[in-house]
Amino acid sequence: MTARTLDRLSIRRRPPGLPLMRQWWGKLLFMHWPVPVSALRPLVPPQLSIDTFDGQAWVGVVPFRMWGVRASFAPPVPGLNDFLELNVRTYVHHQGVPGVWFHSLDIDSAVATWGARRFFYLPYHQAEMSLRQRGDSIDYSSSRIQKDAPPAAFRGSWTIGGGLPAADPESLEFFLTERYCLYSVSDEQLYRCRIHHAPWPLRAAEVGDFDSSMLEALGLSTPPLPPLLHYAEELKVDIWPLLRVEQDTRDHVFEPAGASEPVG
Fold first, then answer.
1. What is the model's pTM?
2. Within a 10 A sphere around the Cβ of 144, how many other Cβ atoms?
């Protein structure tokens, strides 16, 4: 087992204390393409290193549904606990701690858009979205309506396939899907948010009809090659508060985002 594998495994341990939020993610399709590091570097803050697998960077478009969204100390609020979301992401690390950098997150809720922007510094955008399932086939669409963001849309259909073996820690599947923190930046300060869940129960998938301008909204082009696909039916997720990352050390010191200044 390599040191790099140990880094990827250590972040999977459940963080101490109570999570801030609990939710379910599902009907989720990972669509990934290899891209040059040089294409992503201008889109990722300099505090973060772009994570690679065998020297190759990756970008993902991930449509899914979330439900049961609630604070860990309260029941779900009717009308504010079930959303569709589509994120565009790449993979990064800070001093060896691997995570996700979100280029954009579209969601069908104005309230969720406001909350995620204010309290997590994430680039959420409101969109009109739909998910329809017939047997093992899912049709998904998203059209961004956020006025302060570039236009972006997604329309795709996929068929759910059979179950896949658990991802080996040295595999590309593990690199792309087993991510247990996200990074965000506000006023040049780096933040990290930890999450915890069981390993992804990955299944195969096959995409039929597909049209997207999600990458084009970032100034990238959707690669002409077919995406690498993985599907997951459902997964329970716990989410911890956003923490400030101290950048003048090498021992991964964390400070709550509000310890010395208010969040937002």
1. 0.91
2. 22
